[in-house]
Amino acid sequence: MESFFSTPLSSLEDFITEHGFTKVHAQTIYTQIYKHGAKSFEEISGLPQKLYSLLEKKYCFDFLEIAKIQESVDDKTVKLLFKLSDGRTVETVCVPFQKKYTLCLSSQVGCAMKCSFCFTGTQGLTRSLEKKEIILQYIQAYAYIKEKFEGHQAAPNIVFMGQGEPLHNIDNVADAIEILKTTEGMGLGPRQITLSTAGYLPGIKRFSELGSVNFALSFHSPFNEERNELIPLNKAYPIADLIEELKSIKLMKRQFLTFEYLIIRDLNHTRKHVEEIGRLLKDMPVIFNLIPFNEFPGAPYKRPEMAAVEEFKAGLMELGFHAMIRTTKGDDILAACGQLTSQETLS
After folding, report:
1. Distance (Å, rounded) from C-alpha 226 to C-alpha 209?
2. Per residue in 273-314, pLDDT tens?
3. How far apart are CA 125 and CA 122, in angstroms?
4. CA 206 to chain centre
5. Active-site residue set
6. Rounded to 5°, angle at Cα 54 from 50 and 58
7. CATH class of 2-60
8. Which of 219, 294, 319, 339 is the most exposed, having the fewest neighbouring CB atoms within 10 Å of its CB?
9. Which CATH class is domain 65-333?
């Protein structure tokens, strides 16, 4: 049997019309499952009886097991540990904002990039996620939020900033995004989806395949020597090569390239860094998301003082850049940026 959550609407329409039914039935099914949360074909009323039988023989609803749930006592951030069919696990984080949640989705079990500031990087890469495993993180996390938190019924935004390098799994990520953007399904717009990369250049060259979603680069230093330490991938794809490729990304009106900048105590936030950023990124449509380092067990770095973060922000703004400081959420449950790992979470 095929997983329903691996099936684009066009394939469902083809299957249904081949058996003498109309595309409207396929669209109804998609809407009921994705928008209204039906968990089986039986929960969808009004379909021809013969169609129910055909669908149940063709498709299965292979939901993921939620193995563990943690909720922050500080800010209602929720971390879900999903157990996959092969026993592997991944973490998904539900981050609260004023009007709705944003879901931080994982794209791989572990990660091959070995970034020194990231807990996920310590566990290495096991495998990439299938498109259904990406989609089901969203579907099931959204269902949990709707049931648990009154007033958070709107479809959450997505940030691909969980475990893994999403552009290292671009085919499955692209397929998952396409299904989640389907009007009859979740109907997410491209600006509701942000993909963050450590700078995986082969994937950046294919970024247009993702359909105008927001782009974020894990930047962290304008100097190759420092960035090599923080992101070993930089040795293969250095800063100048990345910037040259980013200039070719076509942006929509009022859309920016987000540069995520992890600020680490006594490392990457001097005036020299500000000046080099100004030289490298002059006239580029960039917005900086400044992230005070979130410590994790065994972390080689320390969190900076907020005064240093504010000073760095002021320096960037003096050069004409947009800059904001990301509010830390979920650090009490190791759910903040750079703190995810599923290696030992079940033990």
Report:
1. 31
2. 999 999 999 999 999 999 999 888 888 899 999 999 999 999
3. 9
4. 17
5. 91, 337
6. 170
7. mainly alpha
8. 319
9. alpha beta
